[in-house]
């Protein structure tokens, strides 16, 4: 999962300080693995270099000076492309998918679309597996079933998420 | 064409297949339908037999009759070669039952034969009906035995009786010829006379028939709709796989046909069983009972039933399919059904009211030509309106209810989902109730007209006697009867004056005379002249005048004697209440006529302390020494025979209809439990207490029956009002009677619901969870 | 935009609206079904999937919009014509409850043929073949109430296919089954449909079941959505 794209997605809701970004990230996506400051700043500087963010202003106060970052239009395009590109269906996608759904909601995009696209992609893979299963031998069947069940779990989670869109929207956009 | 016929046939067969398959549940459903329809068919067949039965009884009654009551025909024309029999009818009563028969006196060996009698009895002999013989020998017959002491020489056969339990006798008596109402009989049997009905009686009959038979039809119809929900589901499944509307109708028709046919069979069998059991019935209402052979259905009507019942079932089944036809999705969703529509349900009542309203006063006395059909149709339409309007009203009422305890809530929600079945269940009862309300209201004017209440109980005794002393010995005998109250006895004679004019004379003991006139002193042998009423001019004969006395004894005989008027003791004024003596100008005590040999009729009135049957029996037994000459008649209610018969038939009919109603209720209620088996099982599995289920079930009956009572009252009173208007009678309502009917209906419904509780427990066990 | 008979879609719904009282169940749904394809209809509960299926099958009449079957408008057909269509061209498999409980399984499968006027002998021979094909010949003489859910479903599939339909409508056909039985039913259904060239409209919310389809249509709030993947 790309931290860069996630931070970009967070910036899409408005300019933020690096510290704010870390806090927002931790709050929504970093339950078990909070970001290090270092990671935040190194990522931000990479994004600056690639022209995806820009420095919006500098706040000079008591402590160290704090830069405010804002997303550029190139950055927005990047986020959008990322969001509507389905993830390659593979096990344990959930954190990426979750991030995408939340970001889509935060940025006012249609989360349903993210889900639908992802489902389409998953189903495509599952169809392949099903075909293989129907023609293959027992070993093939077992392997395919294993994969199918995992993919289905992803999708079910997606469905559940879709069903909870309203709830989520309230939490994410107070 | 052939192909089409074949496919029709296939559809019907599929329906039949559906009706008879389905494992235990299917058979159970079929059995319930068959019982429901069968009970209805039984009653309908019984109803078609009433005409024939009455006819057969009447025929045998007329066949043994000696006079049709018409005085012009009282004398039979002689038949060559036949030695006539003098016969007179005598009536008797014992244990609340009428005993009738003839006293007979043969005049030669070629006596005519009475039906069912091998040989008419000679004096000292008698022929009794089996029931009377049995009654005499029974332990309770002590008070009856003294009156039938003759030697029994045989029994009256069935062809001489109207019913197997009729109490009838032929007794040989040596002096019938000069007894009351003796007829010289050359041949037993008179042509029958059709009964003429008044408008009121006709109305009673039509209303009664309608009130008894419309519910039966309703029950048959609702039996044909048993398990409607399961059937709808089944047919919707068929619809889904592509049966079109007509096909589904045909399949449903086939299904209903099987049920109706089985029901028909059950009905015929039940009818035959009932027919063979009927002679064993000894309920007082049936009087002489009914011979099995007399119960033969009118074949035209019976054929009509055989054709109409399956047609009705099929029609009801296909008509009630509307929802399935419109909504084949019934399988997938048990969605809210459409609301019922009102307009077509209102057609019959509006039509009925309209028809009756145009006939105001037309059945006041005689039947008015052209009124019978509209009135009968109006009655049937109004009664038929009840089961039609009821479901709609129940639906509307139930839709408004809410809240309450869990039991109430379960019941109400259930009714909201499907109020049709419970409404149909109580529909039949509501029709019975409606009919009962109207009937009892019609009985009020009819009773005052045809069965007026009598005052204090009295017995009237009358006896022809060869001389005055014997005549007045009767009075002494009566006085010795324990329990007899005041006794008035007297005889009438007519005094022919010299100028040929006839004057009345009343002969009685002093005590009796004192009650008729203001007499201060009196001893036996006195004669009093009565002040003529103002304006009248009969002149009493004077003392010493020789006059001719004429008297009447033994029916047709006028007797004559010579008498010299003795000294007149005094002039008296007749008292107003002494009506028996009206028209008499002389009051005489028996001794005043001591030397005169004059056959005369003595009449006595015995006041009874109460309508005590024992006293009545003793009075009758006191007459035995006079050897059938004296006749006695207990003055209880004087009821018109036709009215009595109508009342009895309606009583029996309403008992049968009520039984049918109860049975029907039970059948439908049981079916409903079977149908809801799974739902009930789910509820118990979820821990709903049995008591809650039971109460909810009761509520499910209570709410519709409450609505039904209101509907029945409204329609019943409307019908009453209209019928009283048609017959020109004032509106009088018997509220306590109505309350009784309503109470009975409510109790019947709740009790039948209660009866289904055991099957509820079975259905609600976890067994029911497995869907069949 | 009516469809032509040859080379056009087999079944097409255009802008279909359907409401039950105040509840809009379909709000502009559209779908095309090509001959022989298996289309999964997915979407959250209450989104209108079943309603769409019923409209497509001519069981429900849409409030507005049109459904074309081989270019003919379904809603303008008579009840008899639509019934006939259900009998001959369509087959149905639901979650449960579509079998007539009074008839044996064999009779249930033979039912559409017999409703179409076939003689009992022939109809039951064909039915027996299908039962064998779906591996439930052993329950032929039992009533639906006496079979397991999986057996019953396969009987239902046999009944849906016995007339050689052009379209099979399946609404949650595996909804009440465990994975193994669900897979069996799906495998038999899809294979049989492919063999006979029948198209399948498959309403399901299970991805593994939907994976038997060729493509999916998503229904959300009564509207359909086809997802085209870029690659
Ligand atoms: N007969 C009906 N009466 C009233 N409302 C109905 C009826 N049928 C469907 N609905 C409503 O229409 C909407 C769509 O129902 P539908 O059955 O098509 O949903 P679905 O997508 O099949 O759901 P599920 O996945 O739960 O089966 C729902 O809101 C439902 O409540
Ligand atoms: Mg559904």
From TrEMBL, chain A:
Q: Give the matching InterPro entries.
A: Tscrpt_reg_PadR_N (IPR005149), WH-like_DNA-bd_sf (IPR036388), WH_DNA-bd_sf (IPR036390)
Q: Source organism's superkingdom?
A: Bacteria
Report domain Transcription regulator PadR N-terminal positions: 7-77
Show the Gene3D superfamilies listed in the entry: Winged helix-like DNA-binding domain superfamily/Winged helix DNA-binding domain
Look up the coiled coil feature and give its residue ranges: none
Q: What is this protein called?
A: PadR family transcriptional regulator
Organism source for this protein? Kutzneria buriramensis
From TrEMBL, chain B:
**Name of the protein in question:** FtsX-like permease family protein
The organism's lineage is: Bacteria, Bacillati, Actinomycetota, Actinomycetes, Pseudonocardiales
Cited InterPro entries? ABC3_permease_C (IPR003838), Membrane_comp_ABC_pdt (IPR038766)
| Compartments reported by the entry | Cell membrane
User: Does the keyword section mention Cell membrane?
Assistant: yes
Origin organism of this chain? Answer: Kutzneria buriramensis
Transmembrane ranges?
A: 200-224, 256-278, 298-321, 342-361, 373-394, 626-646, 652-670, 697-726, 738-761
Membrane topology category:
Multi-pass membrane protein
Q: What do the Gene Ontology cellular component annotations say?
A: plasma membrane
Q: Where is the ABC3 transporter permease C-terminal domain?
A: 210-325, 653-761
What does the UniProt keyword field contain?
Cell membrane, Membrane, Transmembrane, Transmembrane helix
Automatic annotation (TrEMBL), chain C:
By its UniProt entry, which PANTHER family does this protein fall under?
Answer: ABC TRANSPORTER RELATED, IMPORT ATP-BINDING PROTEIN
Q: What keywords are annotated for this sequence in UniProt?
A: ATP-binding, Nucleotide-binding, Transport
Q: Which InterPro entries match?
A: AAA+_ATPase, ABC_transporter-like_ATP-bd, ABC_transpr_LolD-like, MacB-like_ATP-bd, P-loop_NTPase
Gene Ontology molecular function = ATP binding; ATP hydrolysis activity; transmembrane transporter activity
The species this protein belongs to is Kutzneria buriramensis
Gene3D superfamilies, sorted: P-loop containing nucleotide triphosphate hydrolases (3.40.50.300)
Q: Which residue positions does the secretion signal occupy?
A: none
Q: What is this protein called?
A: Putative ABC transport system ATP-binding protein
> What Gene Ontology cellular-component terms does the record carry?
plasma membrane
Residues covered by the ABC transporter domain: 11-229
Q: Does the keyword ATP-binding apply?
A: yes
């Amino acid at each position: 999962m790309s931290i860069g794209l996630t931070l970009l997605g967070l910036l899409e809701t408005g300019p933020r300080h690096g510290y704010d970004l870390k806090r927002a990230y931790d709050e929504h996506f970093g339950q078990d693995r909070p970001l290090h400051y270092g990671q935040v700043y190194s990522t931000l500087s990479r994004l600056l270099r690639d022209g995806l963010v820009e420095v919006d202003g500098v706040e000079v106060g008591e402590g160290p000076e704090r830069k405010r970052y804002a997303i550029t239009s190139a950055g927005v395009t990047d986020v959008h492309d990322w969001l509507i590109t389905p993830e390659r269906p593979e096990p344990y996608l959930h954190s990426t998918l979750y991030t995408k759904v939340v970001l889509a909601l935060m940025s006012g995009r249609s989360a349903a679309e993210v889900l639908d696209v992802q489902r389409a992609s998953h189903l495509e893979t599952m169809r392949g597996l099903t075909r293989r299963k129907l023609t293959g031998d027992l070993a093939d069947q077992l392997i395919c079933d294993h994969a199918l069940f995992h993919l289905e779990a992803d999708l079910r989670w997606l469905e559940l998420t879709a069903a909870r869109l309203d709830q989520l929207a309230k939490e994410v956009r107070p | 064409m052939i192909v089409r016929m074949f496919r029709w046939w296939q559809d019907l067969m599929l329906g039949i297949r559906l009706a008879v398959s389905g494992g235990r549940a299917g058979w159970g459903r079929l059995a319930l339908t068959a019982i429901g329809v069968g009970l209805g068919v039984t009653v309908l067949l019984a109803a078609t037999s009433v005409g024939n039965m009455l006819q057969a009884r009447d025929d045998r009654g007329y066949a043994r009759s000696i006079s049709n009551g018409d005085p012009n025909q009282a004398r039979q024309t002689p038949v060559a070669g036949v030695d006539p029999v003098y016969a007179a009818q005598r009536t008797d009563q014992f244990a609340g039952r009428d005993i009738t028969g003839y006293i007979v006196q043969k005049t030669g060996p070629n006596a005519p034969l009475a039906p069912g009698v091998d040989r008419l009895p000679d004096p000292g002999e008698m022929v009794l009906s089996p029931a009377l013989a049995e009654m005499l020998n029974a332990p309770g017959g002590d008070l009856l035995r003294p009156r039938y002491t003759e030697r029994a020489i045989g029994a009256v056969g069935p062809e001489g009786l109207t019913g197997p339990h009729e109490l009838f006798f032929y007794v040989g008596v040596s002096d019938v010829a000069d007894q009351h109402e003796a007829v010289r009989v050359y041949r037993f049997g008179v042509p029958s006379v059709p009964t003429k009905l008044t408008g009121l009686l006709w109305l009673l009959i039509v209303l009664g028939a309608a009130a008894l038979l419309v519910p039966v039809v309703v029950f048959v119809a609702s039996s044909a709709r048993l398990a409607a929900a399961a059937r709808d589901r089944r047919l919707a499944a068929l619809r889904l796989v592509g049966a079109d509307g007509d096909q589904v109708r045909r399949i449903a028709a086939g299904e209903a046909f099987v049920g109706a046919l089985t029901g028909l069979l059950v009905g015929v069998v039940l009818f035959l069983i009932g027919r063979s059991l009927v002679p064993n019935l000894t309920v007082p209402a049936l009087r002489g009972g009914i011979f099995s052979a007399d119960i033969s259905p009118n074949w035209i009507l019976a054929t009509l039933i055989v054709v109409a019942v399956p047609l009705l079932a099929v029609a009801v089944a296909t008509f009630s399919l509307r929802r399935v036809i419109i909504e084949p999705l019934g399988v997938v969703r048990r969605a809210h059904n459409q609301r019922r529509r009102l307009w077509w349900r209102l057609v019959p009542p509006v039509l009925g009211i309209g028809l009756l309203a145009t006939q105001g006063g037309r059945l006041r006395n005689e039947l008015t030509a052209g009124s019978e059909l509209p009135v009968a149709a109006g009655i049937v339409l109004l009664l038929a309106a009840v089961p039609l309007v009821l479901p709609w009203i129940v639906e509307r009422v139930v839709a408004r209810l809410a809240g309450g305890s869990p039991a109430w809530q379960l019941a109400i929600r259930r009714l909201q989902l499907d109020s049709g079945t419970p409404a149909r269940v109580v529909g039949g009862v509501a029709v019975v109730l409606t009919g009962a309300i109207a009937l009892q209201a019609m009985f009020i004017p009819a009773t005052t007209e045809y069965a007026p209440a009598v005052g204090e109980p009295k017995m009237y005794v009358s006896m022809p006697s060869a001389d005055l002393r014997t005549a007045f010995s009767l009075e002494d005998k009566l006085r010795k009867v324990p329990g007899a109250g005041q006794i008035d006895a007297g005889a009438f004679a007519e005094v022919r004056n010299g100028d040929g004019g006839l004057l009345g004379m009343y002969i009685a003991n002093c005590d009796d005379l004192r009650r008729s006139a203001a007499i201060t002193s009196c001893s036996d042998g006195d004669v009093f002249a009565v002040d003529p009423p103002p304006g009248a001019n009969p002149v009493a004969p004077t003392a010493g005048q020789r006059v001719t006395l004429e008297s009447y004894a033994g029916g047709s005989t006028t007797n004559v004697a010579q008498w010299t008027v003795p000294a007149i003791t005094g002039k008296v004024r007749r008292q107003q209440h002494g009506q028996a003596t009206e028209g008499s100008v002389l009051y005489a005590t028996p001794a005043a006529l001591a030397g005169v040999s004059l056959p005369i009729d003595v009449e006595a009135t015995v006041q009874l302390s109460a309508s005590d049957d024992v006293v009545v029996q003793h009075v009758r037994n006191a007459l035995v020494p006079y050897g059938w000459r004296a006749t006695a008649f207990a003055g209880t209610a004087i009821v018109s025979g036709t009215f009595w018969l109508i009342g009895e038939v309606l009583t029996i009919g309403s008992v049968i209809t009520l039984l049918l109603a109860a049975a029907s209720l039970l059948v439908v209620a049981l079916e409903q439990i079977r149908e809801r088996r799974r739902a009930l099982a789910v509820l118990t599995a979820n821990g709903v207490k049995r008591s809650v289920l039971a109460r909810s079930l009761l509520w499910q009956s209570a709410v519709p029956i409450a609505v039904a009572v209101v509907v029945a009252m409204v329609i019943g009173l409307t019908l009453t009002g209209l019928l009283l208007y048609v017959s020109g009678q004032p509106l009088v309502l018997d509220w306590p009677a109505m309350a009784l009917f309503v109470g009975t209906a409510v109790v019947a419904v709740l009790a039948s619901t209660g009866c289904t509780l055991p099957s509820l427990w079975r259905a609600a066990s976890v067994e029911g969870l497995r869907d069949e | 935009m009516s469809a032509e008979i040859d080379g056009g879609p087999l079944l097409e719904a255009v802008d279909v609206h359907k409401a039950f009282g105040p509840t809009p169940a379909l709000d502009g749904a559209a779908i095309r079904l090509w001959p022989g394809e298996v289309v999964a209809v997915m979407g959250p509960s209450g989104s209108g999937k079943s309603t769409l299926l019923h409209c497509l099958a001519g069981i429900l009449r849409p409030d507005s919009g049109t459904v074309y079957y081989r270019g003919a408008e379904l809603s303008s057909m008579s009840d008899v014509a639509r019934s006939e269509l259900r009998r001959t061209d369509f087959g149905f498999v639901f979650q449960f409850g579509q079998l007539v409980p009074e008839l044996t399984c064999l009779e249930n499968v033979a039912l559409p043929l017999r409703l179409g006027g076939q003689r009992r002998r022939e109809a039951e021979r064909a039915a027996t073949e299908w039962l064998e094909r779906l591996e439930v010949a052993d329950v032929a003489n039992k009533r639906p109430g006496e079979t397991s859910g999986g057996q019953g479903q396969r009987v239902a599939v046999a009944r849906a296919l016995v007339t050689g339909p052009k379209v099979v409508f399946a609404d949650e056909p595996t909804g009440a089954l465990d994975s193994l039985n669900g897979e069996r039913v799906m495998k038999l259904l899809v294979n049989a449909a492919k063999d006979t060239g029948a198209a399948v409209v498959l309403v399901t919310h299970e991805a593994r079941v939907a994976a038997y389809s060729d493509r999916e249509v998503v229904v959300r709030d009564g509207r359909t959505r086809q997802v085209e993947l870029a690659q």
